[in-house]
């Protein structure tokens, strides 16, 4: 997973202090002063960024990864409100020769 280089995927070699600093700078999503930063255009930009991150994981990365736990809590925003997909604890590698993947177990967290 350390080889992932997608723009909207959190690089696993990033320092924890950098992630914590970015989260602290952004603040809690319920903070009314921060909520004002999320107009509809910015929200659409975030959604598109998440989609680009998933496209990278599914089709463009060398590993072809299925995240299996994508939720708001696993998307971090940097200082410019660019989304970074994180927490690959339940991720699975997609078989390169296949076009579909099946799983028998329900996966994810709340």
Give a written overview of the molecule.
Its EC number is 2.7.11.1. One of its GO terms (molecular function) is ATP binding. It is an enzyme of class 2 (transferase). Keywords: ATP-binding, Kinase, Nucleotide-binding, Serine/threonine-protein kinase, Transferase. It contains 3 helices and 4 strands; from the N terminus they run αααββββ. It is of the alpha+beta class and 110 residues long. The protein has a single domain, classed as Transferase(Phosphotransferase), domain 1, CATH 1.10.510. About 5% of the residues have low confidence.
Provide the CATH superfamily.
Transferase(Phosphotransferase) domain 1
Query: How many domain regions?
Result: 1
Give the helix tally: 3
The CATH C-level name is: Mainly Alpha
By DSSP, the count of extended strands is 4
Fraction of residues in helix:
25-40%
Oligomeric form: single chain
Give the spatial strand order of the biggest sheet.
Answer: 1-4
Q: Can you tell me the CATH topology?
A: Transferase(Phosphotransferase), domain 1
Mean pLDDT value: 71
Radius of gyration: 15 Å
Strand content: 5-15%
The helix-strand sequence is: HHHEEEE
CATH architecture: Orthogonal Bundle
The main sheet comes to: 2 strands, antiparallel
Q: Enumerate the spans where pLDDT stays under 50 for 5 or more consecutive residues.
A: 14-18
């Amino acid at each position: 997973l350390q080889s992932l280089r997608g723009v909207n995927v959190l690089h696993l070699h990033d320092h924890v202090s950098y992630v914590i600093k970015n989260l602290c700078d952004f603040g809690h999503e319920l903070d009314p002063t921060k909520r004002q930063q999320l107009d509809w255009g910015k929200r659409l930009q975030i959604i598109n960024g998440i989609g680009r991150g998933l496209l990278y994981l599914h089709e463009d990365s060398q590993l072809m990864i299925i995240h299996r736990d994508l939720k708001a809590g696993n998307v971090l925003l940097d200082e410019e409100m660019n989304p970074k997909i994180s927490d690959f604890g339940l991720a699975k590698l997609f078989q390169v020769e296949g076009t579909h993947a099946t799983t028998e177990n329900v996966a994810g967290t709340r």
